[in-house]
Structures are given as structure tokens and as C-alpha cells.
Amino acid sequence: MSADRDPHGAAHPAHDGDAGAHPFVPGEVDASHRALLYVESVTVSFDGFKALNDLTLYVDDGELRCLIGPNGAGKTTLMDVITGKTRPDSGQAFFGQTLDLTRMREYEIAASGIGRKFQKPSVFPQHSVFENLELAMSGDKRVWSALFARLSGEQVDRIDEVLEIIGLVSERNRRAGLLSHGQTQWLEIGMLLMQSPRLLLVDEPVAGMTAQETERTAELLTSLAGQHSVIVVEHDMDFVRSIARKVTVLHEGHVLAEGSMSEMQSDPRVVEVYLGE
């Protein structure tokens, strides 16, 4: 693969050879050229149907990006490519300047600093909020044997910090199964934060939430931007308007348009295929 240019004009290094030529080393994410995620000319086909069709997307370090589009536009497939669940037929996906996501296993991608929150929460309902965050802590992955082991002061401080971020300090000892829908979503975001991700992928975070929970979720995701890059897939356009700095619209597997929400609302192509529904 020849050297490319990133969206800010910096040379993207060439990567050649087999999958073993560039072993994954945790903690090495080079965002020195501002962009953190590079998805370039990616195509994914399922039984002849192109779920992604020559898609190119760049996300900056610390950016909050909203990803919208009709059902079948390729949003989930794109998330699957970024997290290693799906291998593209062609194209490339890099995390920073050096980590080739198409050559990494799912657990390596997660360990490199990419966290994904699915629409349906996957918390441990019989355990407390605090214990859920403890189980999610990066480090020893043998979590069940580590549960109830003596935590260091630093680890307790980190859990307390995340409880503050997600607004669940008062619920720390409450069983996760007793939380409201919104609180459960926030807990799962907290569980991702325990792994110190550089990039968060969040799928339809406000589906089924009350207006108050939706507003709190907007505040939470906005607060995470800067220290983390956040990609939000969402169909609630009021919510997108409340958080969006930059919006990418997907249609038929490629990027149809990109810009501010106001620009997307006035783009006749976007209105026709999505916002006019």
C-alpha cells in the first residue's frame, strides 16, 4: 500500500507485508496528525449487496461526530469494520497513524482503545453499579476471579471518578438491574470509560429514554468529547441537533454529505433520502 495523505495534509505511512509484520502493541496510538480514525475507500459486500461502497471517513482526535442515515445505509457495518467484527473486501481502516484495524483481532482493537456501546445494554444486573464498573476495569481480564479482590486506592478513585462523570454516585451500591433505562445506558458508558478508550462508538444512546434522560445523555456525551473521540449513531434528530458539531450522512453504503447539522438540513440530497422522511 502506497503512502496516502490524511485529511489535514499529513503523510499517512505506508504499510506493507503480511499481518504479522505489524504486531499490535497496547498503548501506541499516534494521533500526531490530528486525525484519530482513518477509514479509506472501504467496501463490504454480503451476498452481492454492498453494505459499504467505497466509503471514506476521517474522525479527529477528541471530536464528537454524529452518524446518521436511513436504515440500511451502512452505519452498523461501518462500526463492525472499525471494531474488527467485519473484514472489508477492500480499503483500509487505521486507528492513529500505525494501527491497521483490518489486520487486528477484535480483542486487540478493544485493548488498543476503541470501545463500543450497543443499543441494548449489557450490564451485570445482579451486581451493584460499583461492581459493574469494577468488572469492566482494564487490566486483569479474569474479572470474576478478580471481583471482590482488594482494590488499590487508585482503582477506587478511578471508579469514583467515573461514577461522577456518569451521574450515578448516589446509585453506587444499587443493583444494576434496578436502575432506570437511562441510568442503565449511562452505566454501560461508564463501563467503557473504565477501559480508558481513546475512541467511543455509541449506538442509539437515547432510544426509549425520557426527555430528562435524553438531556442528561447529551450533557454526558458532550462532556466526553475532547478527552475522547466519540462517534454517535442516532435516529433522534432533536438529540443530534443538541450535540452535533459535525454530522456525517450515510446512504447506500457511502458518505452522502458531511458538515454541520444546519448544513445537512438545507442539503436537498439529505432531505430527500433521510430528513424528509
Report on the structure:
- The structure is a single chain.
- The chain is an alpha/beta fold.
- Helix content is 32%, strand content 24%.
- It contains 10 helices and 12 strands.
- The chain has helices at 75-82, 106-112, 129-136, 143-146, 153-166, 181-193, 211-224, 237-243, 261-265, 268-275, and strands spanning 4-5, 11-12, 35-46, 49-60, 64-68, 90-95, 99-100, 114-117, 199-203, 229-233, 246-251, 254-259.
- The protein has a 6-stranded mixed beta sheet with strand order 8-9-10-5-11-12, with helices on both faces. A 4-stranded antiparallel beta sheet has the order 4-3-6-7, with helices on one face.
- Helix 5 crosses helix 6 (181-193).
- The radius of gyration is 19 Å and the shape is globular.
- The termini are far apart.
Distance between the termini: 41 Å
Fraction of residues in H or I helices: 25-40%
Shape: globular
Major β-sheet profile:
6 strands, mixed
Report the strand count: 12
For this structure, the quaternary state is single chain
Q: Give the strand content.
A: 15-25%
Query: Structural class of the secondary elements?
Result: alpha/beta
The sequence of SSEs as H and E is EEEEEHEEHEHHHHEHEHEEHH
Radius of gyration: 19 Å
Low-confidence stretches: 1-5, 9-23
Mind sketching the topology for me?
Blueprint: E1 4-5, E2 11-12, E3 35-46, E4 49-60, E5 64-68, H1 75-82, E6 90-95, E7 99-100, H2 106-112, E8 114-117, H3 129-136, H4 143-146, H5 153-166, H6 181-193, E9 199-203, H7 211-224, E10 229-233, H8 237-243, E11 246-251, E12 254-259, H9 261-265, H10 268-275
Parallel strand pairs: 5-10, 5-11, 8-9, 9-10
Antiparallel strand pairs: 1-2, 3-4, 3-6, 6-7, 11-12
Helix pairs in contact: 3-6, 5-6
